[in-house]
Design brief:
Number of strands: 10
Strand order of the largest sheet: 7-6-5-8-10-9
Largest sheet: 6 strands, mixed
Structural class: alpha+beta
Number of domains: 2
CATH architecture of the largest domain: 2-Layer Sandwich
Radius of gyration: 17 Å
Mean pLDDT: 93
Helix content: 25-40%
Order of helices and strands: HEHEEEHEEHEEHEEH
Strand content: 25-35%
CATH class of the largest domain: Alpha Beta
Distance between the termini: 23 Å
C-alpha cells in the first residue's frame, strides 16, 4: 500500500493489466478498485476508477462460429469469457473446472455454450504443452479475422479479438 501511495503522491496512475478476469483482479485490490484502473481479459475489458470504460464484443454470429469450431474437438476444454461471468461446460472434467476456477472468480457451468446470454469477448483453453502449436495453427486458420489464438504459458491458449489486446488499449493511457 505504501508503494501505491507513493505513486499517487507523484501523480502516477496505477493500472493493473492482465489476461485474467476482472473479477479476479479486483479481488487482489478490493480497497483500491474504485481508485485504480484495470485492463482485464487481455485488453477486452477496461475499468477506470470503478467505471466500465470499454469492452470488446463478438457478434452473436462470431460467437457461434468460435464455439462451433472449439466443439469440433471433443477432447478440448474451454471457458467462454463474458461481461457477467466466464462459462464452462457442465460436462467438463472436474480437474479442468478446478483449474479454471483459480483464474475465473465468476465461473458458471452451462449445458450449452450456444445458449449463453452474455457479451462474449475471449475464450480460454488449457491443454498439454506439446499440443499447443498444432491447436494454435488450426485455430489461427479456422478463426482468421474473428479471433487470434495466443499462448499465455502453462498450457493455456487465449482466443482474443485481434484489435483488443493490452498493447492497443494502453495507447489510450
Amino acid at each position: 500500500m505504501a508503494q501505491y501511495q507513493e505513486l499517487k503522491k507523484r501523480g502516477i496512475e496505477f493500472v493493473v493489466a492482465s489476461g485474467n478476469q476482472y473479477y479476479q483482479l479486483i479481488s487482489f485490490f478490493p480497497e483500491l478498485k474504485d481508485e485504480i484502473s484495470f485492463v482485464a481479459e487481455n485488453g477486452a475489458l477496461v475499468y477506470e476508477h470503478g467505471k466500465q470504460l470499454f469492452h470488446g464484443e463478438l457478434t452473436r454470429h462470431e460467437s457461434r462460429i468460435v464455439i462451433g469450431e472449439l466443439l469440433k474437438d471433443k477432447q478440448l476444454n474451454f471457458v467462454a469469457c463474458g461481461l457477467q461471468s466466464a462459462y464452462v461446460s457442465e460436462n467438463a472434467p472436474e480437474a479442468f473446472v478446478a483449474l479454471m476456477a483459480k483464474h475465473y472468480h465468476r465461473l458458471k457451468p452451462v449445458k450449452d455454450y450456444q445458449e449463453i446470454d452474455d457479451v462474449l469477448f475471449k475464450f480460454s483453453l488449457n491443454l498439454p504443452d506439446e499440443q499447443i502449436p498444432l491447436v494454435i495453427d488450426k485455430l489461427h486458420i479456422a478463426l482468421d479475422g474473428i479471433m487470434k489464438p495466443v499462448t499465455s504459458g502453462f498450457g493455456f491458449i487465449d482466443l482474443i479479438i485481434p484489435v483488443y489486446i493490452k498493447q492497443t488499449v494502453f495507447r489510450g493511457y
